[in-house]
Amino acid sequence: MDRIFQGKNSALIGAHRGASAYCPENTMSSFKKALELQADMLELDVQLTSDGHAVVFHDFSLERTTNGTGFVSEHTLSDLKKLDAGTWFSEEFADEKIPALEEVLAWAKGKIVLSIELKQMEHLKEPLAKRVTDLIRSYQMEDQIQLMSFNHASLAEARKHSKRILTNVICSSRLADPVRYLKELQAQVLNVPINQLSPSLIEELHQARYYVHGSMSDDIRVWKTLQEWKIDAMDTNLPDVMIRERVIHHS
């Protein structure tokens, strides 16, 4: 289950929504650029369409990064595929499409680790976790992916459908007892920003055989500090910049 992090001699760098400083976020262009820049992982966001397809998109509404309107969940996959998801970033990416998760899985298989964030709209009671875990299993990629979410009920649901996929608990606040919480959720990774971390907390989690993901930052000072604290991973929009500042730990 822990093949993503096990035996690594440095903290892993995740490309946040792909190489999103250089390409429109959560698009194939952004993912391919991240691979070109030698990121260790791709972070991407997934939610369901009105006809039950998993698509890669961050916001619940379409306006910020496409020429569409309304919620993603109100549109079919074919409707979403007609939208321009690139021009907002640059004319160079005009007519870039919203990817289906299946497209990303087929492209990424055997190439790069995926950190898939489940974007669950609680009131819709969507079968997002089951749909995503079913797709991952159909592509035989359970050891190449971690599932992440602020919605911890989604992670618990994912665990019902796969005992192998790593689950990553995203929190914006300091948990009173993170070791016990991860154990109860059958999760393997705590994902919090630097202001919720300390060297002693990271050591406590490591001693209990859990991993620590330092959220997302483009600040080299944050990256350097987290590496000193022996973090396991951090996401960034600038994977190439962080790679240049990576510390290798020699055993």
Strand order of the largest sheet: 1-2-4-5-6-7-8-9
Instruction: Work out the strand percent.
Output: 15-25%
Helix content: 25-40%
- Describe the main β-sheet briefly: 8 strands, parallel, barrel
Radius of gyration: 17 Å
Mean pLDDT: 95
Can you count the helices? Answer: 9
Series of H and E elements: EHEEHHEHEHEHEHEHEH
Distance between the termini: 23 Å
What coarse outline follows from CA principal-axis ratios? Answer: globular
Low-confidence stretches: none
Q: What structural class should be given to the helix and strand makeup? A: alpha/beta
Total number of beta strands = 9
Description:
This protein has 251 residues and is of the alpha/beta class. 29% of the residues lie in helices and 18% in strands. It is built from 9 helices and 9 strands. It has helices at 28-36, 77-80, 101-108, 128-138, 152-161, 178-185, 199-207, 220-228, 239-244, and strands spanning 12-16, 41-48, 54-56, 113-118, 145-149, 166-170, 189-191, 211-216, 233-236. An 8-stranded parallel beta barrel has the order 1-2-4-5-6-7-8-9, surrounded by 4 helices. Helix 4 (128-138) crosses helix 5. The longest helix has 11 residues, at 128-138. The relative contact order is 0.16. The model has no long low-confidence stretch (mean pLDDT 95).
